[in-house]
């Protein structure tokens, strides 16, 4: 058990938390989507250096569940919220919010929309000015996700998502998230675009290549992202990823002191 060494400031906070002198902050429910295309390649965003959480890290699209993501008015096709709840050990309301957040955040951060006019179709193109206006309205929370879909006559395609993992930010962090990870394939006809916002760079990368860049110190990956990329690097193509049956286990890295040094371990 070696783990990752913690920076001095975080190590000091870890000792305070472990001693019971500082109470951990609550973890916010969140969803993350690993967007894939043949190769396989994954879509990664580099968070701006000014961001309060994970500054400079390469991450998958995702974010916190918005209160309106749990709206029962969301038009839905595919596995039900109850079925998603069983996979992620969540109640039906939270499961609905997680799936909606996954689809909404993917659209906000990549321009890719996992929805269509019907249960067997998907939007072919989301690059027009009207789509961009809706994307920005969703980001600003001036437009609810259910209203966005209803206005366009679309249904959320939950069957285009695959459950992959469940990570909870360590108790020692100032900002914490209880995040369910999904995998999805880039729909035919759609394409990602550099939409700005929280990211200053986007890239399609083979998982193994991203791992190599991290080992060289050329990019920064947080443990959940690193672990997911390492898992995906073992597949020859998208089909293998989608065929994999995943038993979702909750992982929350923890701080331990090893030979006088505070380190973060996942097991």
Number of domains: 1
**Total strand segments:** 14
What's the helix-strand series?
A: EHEEEEEHHEHHEEEEHHHEEE
Q: What value does the average pLDDT take?
A: 90
Please tell me what the overall shape is.
Answer: globular
Which range best describes the helical content: under 10%, 10-25%, 25-40%, 40-55%, 55-70% or over 70%?
25-40%
CATH class: Alpha Beta
Distance between the termini: 8 Å
How large is the radius of gyration?
19 Å
Structural class: alpha+beta
The CATH superfamily bears the name Nucleoside Triphosphate Pyrophosphohydrolase
Low-confidence stretches: none
CATH architecture: Alpha-Beta Complex
Report the CATH topology name: Nucleoside Triphosphate Pyrophosphohydrolase
Percent strand equals: 25-35%
Describe the sheet with the most strands. Answer: 8 strands, mixed
Number of helices: 8
Protein name: Nudix hydrolase domain-containing protein
Cofactor: Mg(2+); Mn(2+)
Keywords: Hydrolase, Magnesium, Manganese, Metal-binding
GO molecular function, one term: hydrolase activity, acting on acid anhydrides, in phosphorus-containing anhydrides
